[in-house]
Design brief:
Blueprint: H1 2-29, H2 46-51, E1 58-61, H3 65-81, E2 87-91, H4 94-101, E3 108-112, H5 118-128, E4 132-136, H6 142-150, E5 155-160, H7 164-172, H8 174-181, E6 186-189, H9 192-199, E7 208-210, H10 219-222, H11 230-235, E8 244-250, H12 254-265, E9 273-278, H13 284-292, E10 298-300, E11 316-318, H14 325-329, E12 334-337, H15 350-354, E13 359-361, H16 369-377, E14 382-383, H17 387-399, H18 401-416, H19 421-430
Parallel strand pairs: 1-2, 1-4, 2-3, 4-5, 5-6, 6-7, 8-9, 8-12, 9-11, 10-11, 12-13, 13-14
Helix pairs in contact: 3-4, 3-19, 5-6, 7-8, 12-17
Length: 434
């Protein structure tokens, strides 16, 4: 392992130099990437250095927005058990940092994670002197892990995510990944079958704990919260009995695909209404143009006010504001999970499932492979190969309210398996050496 890490550190500066043109272009294109750029090399301002002077904080690392949300849930629960506990929350992306920075307090300091070169990680560890390091989902960096281990700092991987693609790569390099993962004190996995998958990578079974997913821990509870947006649809002239198709967190091209699906289904379901919620609200103008090019009447959510009463009922409500997706699920008859038909990765289907709405998605749900596997295995969701298959699947669900109800109930049973995941994770962390 020492030889491998030596070669890793030898190659790292060369790889960094090769990536430098890309980094510079990214800095120019995305000004936010310049923000606190020195922190990526473990260079911190005097204010941050003073904050770390006492040491003893718990260092939590989360890559971007999704992982930061998981980290914050875990941090808040740890604070409930230990009110005096202080944290460093490191992120990789500017969007993740922005979210973490909103939570800054006397006991929580957000930073950018240093690049995993031994000089940078050593300097960061010397400054922070953490009592414990918690990695969220998939970020296991060789130098950070090895140096923490050498300093006898307990290190854990929580909500561990292992996609089929990553598992295949790790198995091919098991002689490297096995020793790396075995330097972790504990790996908290999401599903029962994950235990065997991680063991297959050479991880000691004693280090693996099945906790469930923190992300889905309270999904069923939070689904009952939020605003009732049905009066908005009523004001637009959408009958209470009209079926509603929700396009949730869609990506480029998927909105037009759903528009064509709407037109294909209209002969059988003339009242069918489309709620289009793009993943990125700034794409709203392009989305609107795509839908109107199909001859659909589109109304933007930002255009609605207390007196809105359009003369003609729109075909589509384009939700061009952020923060409402969870609430719109409660208005849906069936939901489509975006980034799954014409893009890779998929978006989280849990909000639809938690709201009791049957969910359909394309073949590209890699980011939620574990949950999707469970849903499909329980016949609690439908996967389609293409747009034509999507039309067929939606028609089947819209015709059969009993099937929709059964799918929704099965999906909620799958989510209930994760209830208590945060507390089980904290129990696993509490068992680590002091």
């Amino acid at each position: 392992m020492r030889l491998i890490r030596f070669l890793y550190n030898l190659a790292y500066p060369l790889a960094l130099l090769l990536c430098l043109p890309w980094l510079i272009r990214r800095m120019i294109k995305r000004g936010k990437y310049r923000h606190k750029f020195g922190q990526r090399f473990a260079i911190y301002s005097p204010r941050v250095r003073v904050r770390f002077r006492e040491g003893g904080r718990t260092w939590v690392h989360a890559v971007s927005v999704g992982e930061v949300l998981i980290a914050m849930k875990l941090i808040q629960r740890l604070r409930e058990r230990e009110p005096d506990r202080a944290f460093v929350l490191s992120t990789t992306t500017s969007t993740g940092f922005a979210l973490a920075n909103e939570q800054r307090t006397d006991w929580l300091e957000p930073i950018y994670n240093p690049l995993d070169f031994f000089l940078f990680t050593r300097h960061a560890l010397n400054l922070i002197r953490p009592r414990q390091i918690i990695l969220v989902e998939a970020e296991v960096w060789p130098n950070l892990v090895a140096q923490a281990r050498a300093r006898r700092i307990p290190i854990a991987l929580v909500n561990a995510r292992l996609s089929p693609r990553s598992e295949s790569r790790f198995r091919a390099a098991r002689f490297v990944t096995g020793p790396l993962f075995n330097q972790l004190n504990v790996i908290c996995v999401q599903e029962p079958e994950d235990v065997a998958r991680w063991q297959g990578l050479g991880v000691d079974a004693r280090r693996i704990v099945r906790t469930g997913s923190i992300k889905f821990d309270d999904a069923l509870t939070t689904a009952r919260e939020g605003r009732d947006l049905r009066p908005i649809l009523s004001a637009l002239g959408v009958p209470a009995t009209a079926p509603v198709l929700l396009g949730a967190s869609t990506h480029a091209g998927e909105e037009a695909a759903l528009g064509r699906v709407l037109l294909a289904l209209r002969p059988e379901f003339p009242d069918l209404f489309l709620l289009s919620v793009p993943r990125h609200a700034e794409r709203a103008r392009a989305v609107r143009a795509d839908l109107e090019a199909l001859g659909l009447r589109v109304l933007a959510r930002s255009e609605i006010n207390a007196t809105t009463s359009p003369a003609t009922r729109p075909d589509v409500l384009l939700v061009d504001v952020t923060g409402e997706l969870r609430d719109w699920h409660h208005c849906a008859t069936v939901a489509f999970a975006g980034k799954s038909l014409l893009a890779r990765g998929g978006q989280n289907p849990a909000e639809a499932v938690a709201a009791g709405v049957p969910v359909v998605f394309g073949p590209n749900m890699q980011n939620f492979a574990i949950l999707v596997h469970g849903l499909l295995g329980a016949r609690a969701a439908l996967e389609v190969a293409d747009e034509a298959a999507l039309v067929t699947a939606l028609a089947r669900l819209l015709r059969d309210p009993d099937e929709r109800a059964v799918m929704a109930a099965r999906g909620q049973e799958i989510l209930s398996l994760h209830r208590g995941a945060t507390d089980r994770t904290i129990d696993a962390l509490a068992a680590l050496p002091a």
